Amino acid sequence: MKSHTTIKPDLITYNTLIKGCALNLDYETGLQLIDDIKSRSDLQMNAITYNTLIDLFVRVNNLDQAHSLMEDMSASGNLKPDSFTYSTIMKGIKKNVKRLPKERTIEQCFGYVQDLISRKVEIDDVLFNCLIDVCIHYKDMDRAIDA
Questions:
Q1: Which of 100, 42, 41 has its CA nearest to residue 67?
Q2: Which of 27, 33, 45, 57 could form a disulfide with 49 if both were Cys (CB 3.0 to 4.6 A apart)?
Q3: pLDDT tens column, 88-132
Q4: Same domain for 120 and 70?
């Protein structure tokens, strides 16, 4: 990010800019912002940063990078995917239903829910509805009803 003053953007500013990139489908600027954050020793990506970047990657249909970032989030130590993370990934899966294998993908989504349950993280209505939406988009009403 270009700085015309001596004031350096903080993580909230970067998160806001990344959200703008997601809304405008501006993948390249989003990647530049990630590089900017990583180049600064005084900043460390938080859950909001990861989730906002995952949203950007989902919106530009780059699910591989979204999954990779989710793995990076888990590997970072103190951050783990939450309901927002998984619901964002599921929205991306729903958008790409024609190119993703049905059984593996549905199992993966149910696995996300199991991960949260095992960590005693509350499953919100958004995540639950995303899980049902994925099942419906794959025309698997039995799984949707069982969810």
A1: 100
A2: 45
A3: 999 998 888 888 888 888 999 999 999 999 999 888 999 999 999
A4: no
